[in-house]
Specification:
Strand content: 15-25%
Distance between the termini: 23 Å
Number of domains: 3
Shape: flat
Largest sheet: 6 strands, mixed
Bound molecules: guanosine-5'-triphosphate, magnesium ion
Oligomer: single chain
Order of helices and strands: EEHEEEHEHHHHHHEHEEHEHEEHHHHH
Structural class: alpha/beta
CATH topology of the largest domain: Rossmann fold
Helix content: 40-55%
Radius of gyration: 29 Å
Strand order of the largest sheet: 3-4-5-2-1-6
Number of helices: 16
């Protein structure tokens, strides 16, 4: 531990930040962390008359309020001299007892001794500013914390380990190659068979466009992976929606009765099915109702259906599929739907004869599968759990989540911008626009990829990335 500023890093941040890195509440241990030029001085103030801990080695210390104040706790402290720390700055971690009081008192002591409370995401933001990680990795740090399913975890970890960053860097390289070919071509315009023909430039640009396109195709599934696919249980009253909701959740969350119109408000839970995240929503049964509360519940159901990624439409038997339901299903337009025939334990045997007839197919155009289910004997639940990931995350199910995939709007916007510029460039060449003029179209593509990685970044870009973070990260 030294007060000498390291010559290896520019001093970008002037102040020292502190925050609770663990969630407040009852826990055995909590972590208070500090980062910045004053971090070691503040630690000394909190641990008077005690040795500085050896770098990167946990040491047990009595933590006081500072400058001879009250004892607050005995805790493990670790000092990380820059640049070998998460942020790249001098950092201190204090692992103290958890709960409501101790971590708060220690944090207050850090603040009283000169640190300032960190903004959301500020530790990671400093890590980016000091070149410890790029922006895409920083976003993945957040995904890693927020992930609730195996696929989310795999994808976030892959991205933290630069999987996506490498892919974007390769695309940027490809772009620089096109620009280099172009420069060559401009330098030797007379040589028809010169070092680089226009064809070669066009080929390279086409390859780049294709690669950008492929990455862009990963965005819909990648973004769903972060949010969870909104999967709405809908259908007539009493058709068994809440029973299925509970069965898929593995707990009795929703009220189930034989009274039609039991569910009023929508219930939502995030669950992992086959390792993929789903936001399962139980809704009020759809019917014309005079009951004001039920009516409102049906309104809520419709709003969920408007933004559903997938609908599980429950009917007791296809015979129940009245014109209202048919109309409703047709109205779901292109939301993939699974038609669930519920309570099959009540009518055992072959129900194929009850399959919707051919004439029904038009109104069932978006029905991808028909599954017989029963929550009483478990029929069809396994099949349903196998179909759901395939239907929503088919691409990722096949490739695994450890592939470069775009997981945020910010990322897909940048790649789309780059793709559009490359397309505009190719069109310009096609129209025999002077090569020097056309080449100007490539620069914004390069900027888009550089901003994506944070090679060049503005406060606006950084604010956008880090505002989603919690304090202490
Ligand atoms: N035998 C049998 N009964 C079921 C099954 N699923 C649901 N039920 C019964 O059907 C009735 C209605 O079930 P719910 O899950 O409340 O139906 P719902 O679609 O949520 O009904 P609303 O909330 O009123 O729209 C209850 O009495 C359940 O016990 C099943 O698979 N087999
Ligand atoms: Mg219900």
């Amino acid at each position: 531990m030294t007060d000498e500023p390291s010559s290896r890093l520019p001093e970008l941040a002037v102040d020292t930040i502190a925050a609770l890195a663990t969630a407040p509440g009852l826990s055995a241990i909590a972590l208070v962390r500090m980062s910045g030029p004053e971090a070691f001085r503040v630690l000394r103030a909190l641990t008077p008359d005690q040795d500085d801990p050896a770098p990167r080695t946990a040491a047990l210390r009595s933590i006081t309020k500072g400058e001879g104040g009250d004892l607050l706790d005995r805790a493990l402290v670790t000092a990380f001299p820059r640049p070998d720390s998460y942020t790249g700055e001098d950092m201190v971690e204090i692992s103290c007892h958890g709960g409501w009081l101790v971590p708060r008192l220690i944090l207050d002591a850090c603040l009283a001794m000169g640190a300032r409370l960190a903004e959301p995401g500020e530790f990671t933001r400093r890590a980016v500013l000091h070149g410890k990680m790029d922006l895409v990795q920083a976003e993945a740090v957040l995904d890693l914390i927020e992930g609730r399913s195996k696929a989310q975890h795999d994808a976030a970890l892959f991205q933290v380990e630069r999987g996506l960053s490498r892919r974007i860097a390769e695309l940027r390289e490809q772009l620089v190659t096109v620009e280099a070919y172009l420069a060559h071509h401009i330098d030797f315009p007379e040589e028809d068979e010169g070092p680089v023909t226009v064809d070669r430039v066009v080929d390279a640009a086409a390859g780049l466009r294709e690669a950008l396109e492929q990455l862009l195709e990963t965005a819909p599934e990648g973004e769903l992976l972060r949010e969870g696919a909104v999967t709405v249980l809908a259908g007539p009253p009493n058709s068994g929606k809440s029973s299925l909701y509970n069965a898929l959740l593995g707990e009795e969350r929703a009220i189930v009765t034989d009274v039609p119109g039991t569910t009023r408000d929508a219930l939502e839970s995030v669950i992992s099915i086959g390792g993929f995240p789903f936001r399962l929503v139980d809704t009020a049964g759809l019917r014309d109702s005079d009951d004001r509360v039920e009516e409102l519940g049906i309104e809520v159901a419709r709003r969920y259906l408007d933004r559903a990624d997938l609908v599980l439409f429950c009917v007791e038997s296809p015979g129940d599929l009245g014109s209202a339901e048919r109309e409703f299903l047709a109205g779901l337009a292109d939301v993939p739907t699974i038609l669930l025939r519920t309570k099959v334990d009540l009518a055992p045997g072959d129900r194929a004869s009850e399959d919707p007839q051919d004439g029904d197919r038009a109104s069932l155009a978006n029905v991808r599968e028909i599954v017989d289910v029963s929550v009483v004997d478990g029929t069809g639940l396994g099949r349903l759990q196998a179909i759901l990931p395939e239907l929503v995350y088919g691409g990722l199910v096949r490739t695994g989540a450890s592939v470069p995939a775009l997981t945020r709007a910010r990322q897909s916007e940048a790649v789309r911008k780059a793709r559009d510029q490359v397309v505009a460039f190719m069109e310009a060449l096609d129209e025999e626009t002077p090569v020097a003029v056309a080449s100007a179209l490539l620069r914004p593509a390069e900027t888009a990829l550089e901003e994506l990685l944070g090679v060049i970044s503005t406060d606006e870009i950084l604010d956008r990335v880090f505002r989603e973070f919690c304090i202490g990260k």
